Amino acid sequence: MSTPFSTRLLSALTAARCVVAFTGAGMSAESGVPTFRGTDGIWSKFKAEELASMSAFMKNPALVWEWYAERKRVISGIHPNAGHLALVRMQGLFPDFAIVTQNIDNLHQRAGSTMVYELHGNIERNYCIKCGAPASNDEVLAQHGVPTCARCGGTIRPDVVWFGEMLPEDDWRHSERAMSRADVCLSIGTSGIVYPAASLPLLAKQQGAFLAEVNPERTPLSDVADEVITGPSGVILPALFDQVAASRSHSLQY
Ligand code: BV8
Ligand code: ZN
Description:
- This protein folds into 2 domains: about 5-35 and about 80-120 and about 165-250, Rossmann fold, CATH 3.40.50.1220; about 40-75 and about 125-160, SIR2/SIRT2 'Small Domain', CATH 3.30.1600.
- The protein is built from 11 helices and 9 strands.
- It has helices spanning about 5-15, 40-45, 50, 55-60, 60-75, 80-90, 105-110, 135-140, 170-180, 200-205, 235-254, and strands at about 20-25, 95-100, 115-120, 120-130, 135, 155-160, 185-190, 210-215, 225-230.
- The mean pLDDT is about 95.
C-alpha cells in the first residue's frame, strides 16, 4: 500500500524514545469483535446503561450474564489481527513503549504485547461480589444462568469496569504516567467518547506528544490530532511499522 504517512509523523516516530498506543474496540474489529458504537456495534442492539452497569446487573443479572457469556464465547474463538501483531513488533523499536487499552478482549496480550494497561478490565477474569474470590471463564461458563461462587455461594460478576464504576487505580496511574512522558501517542480504533479514558490522549498532547489517530472514521479527537490516518488499523499499523523500522535503522547508521 502507498505510504499515507507524513514526514512529520515519521520523523516524530524516528526520533521518539517513548511511544504510547491508546486502543479501543476498532483495534479488534478485524478480528471479528463487533465494536460498540459502529453500525454493527453491540450497543446498537442494547443501550450501555441497560447492560454494562451495576444497577442493570442487580436488576437483571441473568440478562447481563447472557450478554457477557455470548461475548466470552465470541472472544474465545477469535485471534489477534495484523494490527495487534504490528504493535508487538513496535514494542521492540522503542526503549519505552506501552499500550493503554479500553478493550477487555485480551487480544493485545494474546498477540504477545507485554506492556499493556487495561483501563476497563478483562473479560477473561471474573470475581465473586461477596468474597472477592476469582473465578475462571471455564468455571462461570460451565454454570447456566448467573454463576455462583464455589467458596461462598455469592454471585459472580465479570471483572470489567461498568458505567459509573471507578477505573483500576494502578492501570490508571501507569497510563497517566505513560501519556505524560510520551513523545508520540497513537490513538487507534476508538470513538473517544468514554471518559475518563478518552482524556488520556489529550493529556499526552498537552504534555507535548505528537498525537496521531488511526481510524476509518473521524472522531472528536480528529480535530485535536497532529495527524489523522484514515483506514483500518490492521492495514495501517503494519505499514507504519515497516516505514518506522526502516527509518529508525537508517538514522542509527548515520
Ligand atoms: C466513571 C467495559 C465515575 C465493559 C466499558 C457524560 C459526559 C461524560 C462522561 C459521562 C457522561 N455520563 C456518564 C459519563 C461517564 C461514563 C462515560 O464516559 N459515558 C459515555 C458513554 C458518555 N464513564 C463511566 O461511567 C466510567 N466511569 O466515569 O466513573 C466515578 C467517579 C468517581 C467514583 C465513582 C465513579 C466507566 C467507563 C467504562 C465503561 N466500560 N467497557 C464492557 O466492555 O462490557 S466502555 C466501552 O466503551 C468499552 O470499554 C470500549 O472500549 C469503550 C470505548 O468505546 P471504543 O473502544 O471507542 O469503541 P467504539 O465502538 O465506541 O468505537 C470504535 C471505533 O473504532 C470507532 O471510532 C470506529 O470508527 C473505529 N473502527 C472500526 N473499525 C476499525 C476502527 N478503527 C480502526 N480499525 C478498524 N478496522
Ligand atoms: Zn465468594
